[in-house]
Amino acid sequence: MSDKVVLAYSGGLDTSVAIRWLREAYNLDVIALTIDVGNERDFSAIEQKALKVGAVKALVKDAKELFVNYFVFPALQADAIYEGQYPLATALSRPLMAKLLVDAAREEAASAVAHGCTGKGNDQVRFEVSINALSPGLKIIAPAREWDMTREETINYAQRYDIPVPITASSPYSIDENLWGKSIECGVLEDPWVEPPEEVFTWTRSPDKAPDKPGYIEIGFDQGIPITIDGQELDGVSLIQRLNRLAGMHGVGRIDHLENRLVGIKSREIYEAPAAAVLLQAHQALEAMTLSKDQLRFKQKVAMEYADLIYNGLWFTSLHQDLAAYVQSTQRFVTGTVRMKLFKGNCQVVGRKSPKSLYSFGLATYDKGDQFDQSASPGFIHIWGLPVRTQAQIQGIGDLGKTEK
Ligand code: ARG
């Protein structure tokens, strides 16, 4: 009897070829594990395909809820956006997949796990650093990094062993999808000067074909977690699915990002993330109302660290645990409702309210009912400006005083 390996199986060309290749190169029995993180695929067809191309067993795991509750929502609470653009859909799914691979390897008494990543991307790092943290010493095989075949050679290999080559393999794009977003790269997108052709977008309508009337939605949050749309309570998975459709219809959530990969390469990636775009913006709007200025300033720094650690494959680390505790603490009053306007590719916050709002009408108003004591301002300015006056008097203000060359 051969040893067993659990392979993260997507049903695509590379991981299908990997099933055969792991047998040829390592003499391993392959258990294919397909993880549903909301990619809307035909999972029973994928299961059948795994068996047909030679897996000894095919497992499908619905991980949508786990993904949303333990990965997506905590990242939303943290306002994690990589380099100000990417909501981290692919990056967030990898540590979950690593966990499920390790669990399956234990249950199936497998001696190794495998994934289909190449040697140039971030995903190999995320998978392997996570697997190492969860199960030190577990053998990891990365067929697509080892086999040294071009795309064409992989297709030939598939044909030689009667492995069906999916039509998508003839598409020039590399695509990864889950509930939080779709990532698209390769083909013409590798020229950063070329506008993404309309065909790469499947979740979002082109803004010029979007409805001529704006759509309004109200999102209700409880401690930083979105729980209602227009007053209707929804579980996390359904809420995200609904927002992807709604905002996608209005052309919201297209992102063109020239990003810095962990492995040192700059790469151009297109994302579609309608729900993420709306929720991240709405969440920040509610935080603006319920957190103090100092909390907001500090949380922005944490958000950047948090996004970097997700992107860089450091989910299962103590740093993450510590930052997550901070983020959780910040969310205790982030409860309320945000009204968003969706119109031709744009998403705007147009209203917000919260039972714990720090916005005080009495302090802000210029009308009747003003409670702000304006007579206290001269004293405040006198003290606030004290170091400025002192320095200007003694040292001057240098070039800043010049108004002509
Ligand atoms: N650049 C993104 C990341 O590193 C997405 C990677 C997967 N993209 C893809 N088109 N297959 O998280």
Description:
The chain is built from 14 helices and 14 strands. It has 3 domains: 147 residues, HUPs (Rossmann fold); 177 residues, Argininosuccinate synthetase, chain A, domain 2; 28 residues, no CATH class. The strands form 3 sheets. The chain has a 5-stranded parallel β-sheet with strand order 3-2-1-4-5, with helices on both faces. A 5-stranded antiparallel β-sheet has the order 10-9-8-13-14. The chain is elongated. 41% of the residues lie in helices and 20% in strands. Arginine binds next to helix 4, strand 6 and strand 7.
Q: What is the string of SSEs from the N terminus onward?
A: EHEHEHHEHEHHEEEEEHEEHHHEEHHH
Q: What is the overall pLDDT average?
A: 96
Radius of gyration: 25 Å
- Sequence stretches where pLDDT stays below 50 over 5 or more residues: none
Q: Helix fraction?
A: 40-55%
Reported for the largest beta sheet, the result is:
5 strands, parallel
What is the CATH domain class of the largest domain? Alpha Beta
Q: What is CATH's topology name of the largest domain?
A: Argininosuccinate synthetase, chain A, domain 2
Q: What are the distinct ligands in this entry? A: arginine
Helix vs. strand class: alpha/beta
Secondary structure elements and pairings:
Elements: E1 4-8, H1 13-26, E2 29-36, H2 43-52, E3 57-62, H3 64-77, H4 89-107, E4 112-114, H5 123-134, E5 139-141, H6 143-146, H7 151-160, E6 174-178, E7 181-185, E8 215-222, E9 225-229, E10 232-233, H8 236-249, E11 254-260, E12 266-272, H9 274-290, H10 293-311, H11 318-330, E13 336-343, E14 346-353, H12 361-364, H13 377-384, H14 386-395
Parallel strand pairs: 1-2, 1-4, 2-3, 4-5
Antiparallel strand pairs: 6-7, 7-12, 8-9, 8-13, 9-10, 11-12, 13-14
Residues 90-91, 122-123, 174-176, 183-185, 269 line the site of arginine (ARG).
